Amino acid sequence: MARVAPSHRIAAFVMDSLSQAALGAAIGVAVMGRRTRPWKAALIGALAGTLPDLDSFYDYGDPISNMTYHRAASHALFWQTLASLPIAALAAVALREMSEFWRWWLTIWLALITHALLDWTTVYGTQLGLPFTDTPVGLGSMFIIDPLYTLPLLIGIVVALCLRNVRGWRWNVAGLVLSTTYLCWSALAQQHATEVAQESLRAQGHHVERLLVTPAPFTTILWRVVAITPQGYLQGFTSVFDRDRTIAFDTFARGEYLYAQLRHNPFVERIARFSHGFFKMSEKDGRAVITDLRMGQEPNYSFNFVVAQRQSPTFAAIVPPVRLQTRPDIEKGLPWLWRRALGEKLPPPR
Fold first, then answer.
1. Which DSSP string corresponds to 146-173?
2. What is the 3-state secondary structure (H, E, C) of 22-42?
3. How far apart are CA 265 and CA 269, in angstroms?
4. Which of 73, 87, 152, 201 is least surrounded by Cβ atoms within 10 Å, i.e. has the fewest?
């Protein structure tokens, strides 16, 4: 019997799926046009756009599996294409519009695959290539929640539903164009931030093994840079409004000695692969913790897992692993975020 996911994963589903539902609804209205009522097109598009994230409700048995199996088969372009046909048939039958089957199929197929491709723009990791490859991919040019992406879609949909005519349809298409343009901007801004980071790291004499550049929360103006080095890892920030191209980096330990002892632990192996090497290990109260460095910033990260307990001089695996919840200081973090995004070079809050 399928197990229900923990409440925090259900809450994440609600937040993450708003943009996906808006995108699916906008696609539905754009594709169906005047062939059906706008509210039907928006509803079916929103449901199809949300459908892949229903995997959030399934509990795979441990928090690391829940993390790494999310955005897997339900987000694979091959399986989505196959599933789009029976889903379209079901929608067409339910709405008594079989004459528009192929339009409904195109609506649902686009809503499904754009869901997966939008997830690909984030850094989390989406397994687009299943069943041919299970390698998670992520461009990392978008934060998982960005109002500037979602608002044009919502405005276009609302106007289309209110006007219910060609003018409303044009508003909806305009929302899609603006949101897509914003995605293009995010990729260009990421490329600029990457060039600045590479230049600054070279100037400071750092030997970089891996480099990650991702947006700070809710924006594509401020970018977080993580560089893996032989000594540990560096974290710095750069804004498109910075007056100079020098990044101030802070240095942190990665806990290589812990990884050397626990690298064959299957949960450690899974996080190391899923994060593409952007992880750290630490010891807290005799417990070994592995942290995904891609989501969050020092000292608060979204994914921290206790994987072993010290039994000196070695460690005993903890099965299942335990997820550690951390809460960033919003009162300090948000003011710093906006001031730093506007080009004021402030050290990040601790």
1. -HHHHHHHHHHHHHHHHH-SHHHHHHHH
2. HHHHHHHHHHHHHHCCHHHHH
3. 6
4. 73
Using alpha carbons, select from 82, 184, 59, 78 the residue that is nearest to residue 127: 78
The phi, psi pair for 239, rounded to 5°, reads -115, 150
Q: How far is CA 38 from the centre of its chain?
A: 29
Find the farthest-apart pair of alpha carbons in the chain and give their distance in angstroms, rounded.
72
Q: Residue 31 pairs with which residues in a beta bridge?
A: none
Residue 3 has pLDDT above 60, yes or no: no
The answer to whether residues 281 and 271 touch, using CB atoms and an 8 Å cutoff, is no
Grade residue 15 by pLDDT with cuts at 50, 70 and 90.
low
Kindly list the distances between the CA atom of residue 235 and the CA atoms of 232, 274, 307, 329, in Å, as whole numbers in the listed order. Answer: 10, 20, 25, 18
- What's the pLDDT tens digit per position in 247-298? 999 999 999 999 999 999 999 999 999 999 999 999 999 999 999 999 999 9
Q: How far is the C-alpha of 150 from the C-alpha of 157, rounded, in Å?
A: 11
Q: Which of 48, 51, 162 is nearest to 104 (CA)?
A: 48
Q: Measured between alpha carbons, how far is 170 from 121 in angstroms, rounded to an integer?
A: 26
Cα distances (Å, whole numbers) of residue 121 to 22, 180, 264, 341 = 17, 12, 31, 21
How many Cβ atoms from other residues are within 10 Å of residue 191's Cβ? 12
Structural element, H or E, at residue 280: strand 279-284
- 335: enclosing H helix or E strand: helix 330-341
**Which residues, 6 or more positions from 219, have their beta carbon under 8 angstroms from its beta carbon?**
143, 146, 148, 337, 341
Could you state, in order of their start, the residue ranges of all structural domains in the chain? 3-185, 189-250, 253-324
Average pLDDT, the chain: 94
| Contact yes or no for 20/7 (Cβ under 8 A) | no
User: Do 247 and 200 contact (CB within 8 A), yes or no?
Assistant: yes
Instruction: Estimate the crossing angle of helix 7-32 against helix 38-50, to 10 degrees.
Output: 140
